[in-house]
C-alpha cells in the first residue's frame, strides 16, 4: 500500500515529498518542542477510516479505526513496524519518528457511522499502533472519534500504553453509558530497566497501571494485556509474579498474557537491540524463534498457564460474571486495506 491509497483529493497543500510519497496531499510538519523534537508528522486526509481486518475470523473484532501510522512510543519489538514499509518508510527509526496523521479521522468516522451501509458493529482501536501516542496530545483526534461513537451508540474498544487516554475520561464515561466500551492497557512487565531500553517512548509501567486504577475508580472496566512477555528477560517466575501482582493491585478486570512474536520488520530491529543490550541471548533467541515469528507452543502454553495461575491467586477476574469482554489484540501485520474500509 502506498500514499496514494491513503489520501483523498488534494486539500490544496503543495506536495511534501513527492519522490517519497507519490501523492500530492501530504503536509509535513515538525514542532520544535522537547516533546516532538526529532519527529516528523505527515498529515493526510484519508479516504476512509474504518478498516476490515484481514483474517478477522481469528480475531475478536472485525473492524478497526487507526488515526495514526507509526508510533513514537518506539517499542523495539513492535509488530506494526512492517506496516511502515508499505508506505516506503523505514521500519526502524523511521517507524518511531515518521508519523502519519489522518487529520480528518473524526469527521470521516462520523460520516461512515451515519451511512446506511454501516450496521453498528464493534470497532477496535489501538490494534495497529497506539492511538494515544504523543501525537494525540497535539492533534486531538480521539475526542472527536469517541464522540462520534458515543453519538451513534456504537460499541468499541481501545488498547493503549498511553496515559493520555485519561484526558478523554468524561467522553469515555458518556460513551460507556450508551454502548459497550472495552478498555485494555498494555503492560507486559514491571521491570524498569527493561522498560527504559525496550519501550523507550512509553509511559512507565506503573503510570499505565495508574490509568487502570483511575478508569476503574470511575466505573470503567479495564483489562490488562500482558504483552509482550519477553523470553529470558521478563519471563522469570518472580518477574511474572511481580507483574501480575501489580496488575491485580490496579483493579484490572482481566490479565491476558501474550508472548513476544517477531515478525519481519520487528525481528531485525529487535535482534539488533538484543545484540547491543543482551548479546549473550542472541543464540538462545535464534533457537527459540527458529521456526519463525512465534515462540514454540510449549513455551506459550507455559507462560499462559503461569499467568493464569497467578491471576487466580491474586483474584483477578471479570467484575460482572457472564459478561464477555472484548480484549483488543494486535491485528495481523498486513497492508492496510483501502476500500472497505475502515482504518
Ligand atoms: S505502543 Fe504499541 S504501537 Fe506503539 S510502538 Fe509500542 S507496541 Fe508499537
What is the topological layout?
Layout: H1 3-6, H2 18-21, E1 27-29, E2 40-44, E3 50-52, E4 63-65, E5 68-69, H3 81-85, H4 93-97, E6 98-102, H5 105-113, E7 123-125, H6 135-139, H7 142-151, E8 156-160, H8 169-178, E9 181-186, H9 192-198, H10 205-217, E10 222-229, H11 237-249, E11 255-259, H12 266-277, H13 282-288, H14 297-313
Parallel strand pairs: 2-6, 4-7, 7-8, 8-9, 9-10, 10-11
Antiparallel strand pairs: 1-2, 3-4, 5-6
Helix pairs in contact: 5-7, 7-8, 11-14
The structure holds iron/sulfur cluster (SF4).
Iron/sulfur cluster binds at residues 71, 73-75, 78, 80, 129-130, 133, 161, 202.
Keywords: Iron, Iron-sulfur, Metal-binding
Region (Disordered): 1-22, 319-343
Pfam families: Radical_SAM
The Cα radius of gyration reads 20 Å
Bound molecules: iron/sulfur cluster
**What overall geometry do the principal axes of the alpha carbons give?**
globular
Number of helices, counting only DSSP H or I runs of 4 residues or more: 14
Please state the average pLDDT score.
88
Helicity level, as a percent range?
25-40%
Computed structural class:
alpha/beta
| Annotation, overall tally of beta strands | 11
Share of β-strand residues? 5-15%
Poorly predicted runs are 1-23, 319-325, 334-343
How would you write the strand order of the largest sheet? 3-4-7-8-9-10-11
Give the SSE order as H and E letters: HHEEEEEHHEHEHHEHEHHEHEHHH
Q: Separation of termini?
A: 13 Å
Please outline the major beta sheet: 7 strands, mixed
GO molecular function, one term: catalytic activity
Protein name: Radical SAM protein
Organism: Streptomyces apricus
Keywords: Iron, Iron-sulfur, Metal-binding
Amino acid at each position: 500500500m502506498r500514499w496514494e491509497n491513503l489520501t483523498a483529493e488534494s486539500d490544496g497543500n503543495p506536495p511534501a515529498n513527492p519522490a517519497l510519497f507519490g501523492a500530492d496531499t501530504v503536509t509535513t510538519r515538525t514542532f520544535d518542542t522537547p516533546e516532538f523534537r526529532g519527529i516528523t508528522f505527515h498529515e493526510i486526509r484519508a479516504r476512509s477510516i474504518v478498516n476490515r481486518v484481514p483474517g478477522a475470523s481469528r480475531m475478536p473484532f472485525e473492524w478497526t479505526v487507526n488515526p495514526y501510522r507509526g508510533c513514537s512510543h518506539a517499542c523495539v519489538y513492535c509488530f506494526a513496524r512492517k506496516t511502515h514499509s508499505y508506505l516506503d518508510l523505514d521500519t526502524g527509526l523511521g517507524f518511531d519518528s515518521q508519523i502519519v496523521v489522518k487529520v480528518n479521522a473524526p469527521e470521516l468516522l462520523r460520516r461512515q457511522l451515519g451511512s446506511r451501509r454501516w450496521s453498528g458493529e464493534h470497532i477496535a482501536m489501538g490494534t495497529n499502533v497506539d492511538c494515544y501516542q504523543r501525537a494525540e496530545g497535539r492533534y486531538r483526534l480521539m475526542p472527536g472519534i469517541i464522540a462520534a461513537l458515543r453519538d451513534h451508540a456504537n460499541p468499541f474498544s481501545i488498547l493503549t500504553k498511553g496515559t493520555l487516554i485519561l484526558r478523554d475520561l468524561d467522553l469515555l464515561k458518556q460513551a460507556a453509558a450508551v454502548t459497550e466500551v472495552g478498555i485494555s492497557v498494555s503492560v507486559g512487565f514491571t521491570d524498569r530497566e527493561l522498560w527504559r531500553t525496550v519501550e523507550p517512548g512509553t509511559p512507565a509501567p506503573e503510570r499505565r497501571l495508574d490509568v487502570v486504577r483511575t478508569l476503574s475508580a470511575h466505573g470503567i472496566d479495564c483489562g490488562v494485556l500482558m504483552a509482550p512477555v519477553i523470553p529470558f528477560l521478563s519471563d522469570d517466575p518472580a518477574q511474572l509474579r511481580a507483574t501480575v501482582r501489580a496488575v491485580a493491585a490496579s483493579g484490572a478486570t482481566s490479565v491476558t498474557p501474550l508472548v513476544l512474536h517477531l515478525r519481519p520488520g520487528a525481528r531485525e530491529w529487535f535482534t539488533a537491540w538484543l545484540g547491543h543490550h543482551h548479546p549473550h541471548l542472541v543464540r538462545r533467541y535464534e533457537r527459540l524463534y527458529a521456526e519463525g515469528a512465534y515462540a514454540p507452543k510449549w513455551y506459550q502454553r507455559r507462560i499462559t498457564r503461569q499467568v493464569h495461575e497467578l491471576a487466580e491467586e491474586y483474584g483477578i477476574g471479570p467484575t460482572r460474571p457472564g459478561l464477555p469482554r472484548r480484549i483488543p489484540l494486535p491485528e495481523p501485520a498486513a497492508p492496510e486495506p483501502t476500500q472497505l474500509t475502515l482504518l
